[in-house]
Prior knowledge:
Elements: H1 2-5, H2 7-13, E1 22-23, E2 29-31, H3 39-50, H4 56-65, H5 74-85, H6 94-108, H7 111-124
Antiparallel strand pairs: 1-2
Helix pairs in contact: 5-6
Amino acid sequence: MLNIAGREAIEKERSFVYSPAVRNEANEIITPAETKESIEVLKRKFKEICNPQGNVIMERHKFNVRNQRDGESIQSYVSDLRILADTCEYGTMKDEFIRDKIVCAWYYIGQGSKAVTKRKSTRTR
């Protein structure tokens, strides 16, 4: 399989660490040793280096510092927030975090306080 994949794949495979066999007290093999002859082992090892586990803290930082750019439409901004939130492991709270991010940005630029004041004044009438 490695010869078909090419020189770069062979070089990457040389960096793989294969697990030894796991044995019980009677010295019987419980889990066989990993080997480069196993296609399943190679596929798993290549997936690990090609699709590394993301750093949730860093992904959340990217989400939290993302602000709407000058001239950027709200649709584009929200779409980008959704893409960023997908890697943050927010689960069922994802939409609420996106909403809160938009509301906080809205308040920051001064629009929110005007709207809330206007809303309160119309309620008192």
